[in-house]
Every structure is written in structure tokens, then in C-alpha cells.
TrEMBL record:
Name of the protein: Cobalamin adenosyltransferase
Gene3D superfamilies reported for this sequence: Cobalamin adenosyltransferase-like (1.20.1200.10)
EC code: 2.5.1.-
GO terms of molecular function: corrinoid adenosyltransferase activity
Domain Cobalamin adenosyltransferase-like as annotated: residue spans: 8-165
Entry similarity comment: Belongs to the Cob(I)alamin adenosyltransferase family.
A Pfam cross-reference name: Cob_adeno_trans
Sorted UniProt keywords: ATP-binding, Cobalamin biosynthesis, Nucleotide-binding, Transferase
Family annotation (InterPro entries): CblAdoTrfase-like (IPR016030), CblAdoTrfase-like_sf (IPR036451), PduO-typ (IPR029499)
Region named Disordered: 1-24
Amino acid sequence: MGKRLTQIATRTGDDGTTGLGDNTRVPKDHLRVQAMGDVDELNSHIGLLLCEPVPADCREVLVEVQHQLFNLGGELSIPGYELLKGEAVLALDEALATYNAQLPKLEEFILPAGNRAASQAHVCRTVARRAERALVALGGSETLRDAPRQYLNRLSDLMFVLARVFNRMDGGDDVYWKSERMARNT
């Protein structure tokens, strides 16, 4: 494969614009650029999560997610182009079913807490939700395919489920919200 990047500091963005993959230039606060940035941030947070000791099967899923998020970012950078395939959404559905089957049913809300891996998974979940909102905003002004939005929706759900899986490593558990209802029932 040939070199894709030859220079990083081009200075072409000094005027407040950035180039898309189709060679058009848009303001850096364009909804498309905001969505691309949120997807990039999400991918970076997943990279940080992968610095933690997580089960090998979860690691494989997360590495694949990083590749799919890169595809999504590429798709966003080239209006009208398709890189994220529907199969990627199905893979998340399968992962959700697999990991959910291992977990006890939730009886109360949980806090975004626990061990470092679980807490970082919750950060990923919230950034995925923000990226999804950015895609919805972009979709309000431009026609977008459904798969990218669906992917981020499923991914945020998967990050919640993986946080629960990670909290159970080494015999841990979820961190439950101390609600008034639970206090009355104990």
C-alpha cells in the first residue's frame, strides 16, 4: 500500500476550515466535522480502555470496534461514501447477546463506576452517545445512511454491558445507585 499521509502540519486549516476526503473545505465547526471529531474521540477512549487488562475476547471485540470506527470516520470525511457496512452493526448485536447472557438481570440503576476498565468503558459509552447525537444533528441537514447511527447506538449499549463484564473481573460487581426505593426495600 502506498503512503497515505505525507505531511501532518499543512497549515491549510489556519483559516478555520478543514478539508474533507472529497477535497471540499468546510468550517471546522461544521456538523460533519463535529461528528468526525466525536467518533475520533470515541476511538481514542477505546484505545485507552485497551491499556487495561480486559478479557481476551473483549479485547478482540474492542480492536474490531476501533477499525469500524475508523471506517465510520472515513465515511464521514467523504460525503456520500460508504465504508461502514451493515455487518458491523450485526457484529455488535451478536456481541451484545453474548455478553448480556453472562450477566445477572439489572434490578436497579448502576453508577458509572467500579474498576478502571469498567469506568473507562462508561466514558466510552457516553462519548458514543455524544457521537450518535452529532450524527443525528448532521442527518437533520444532510442525507445519511442508517448504519452509522445504528452502529453508534449499539456500541453505546455494548460499552454499558462491557462495563458490567469488567466490574465482574476478579469477583467484583456493579456499583448500584443508592435510590430511595432500594433503601425502603432493604
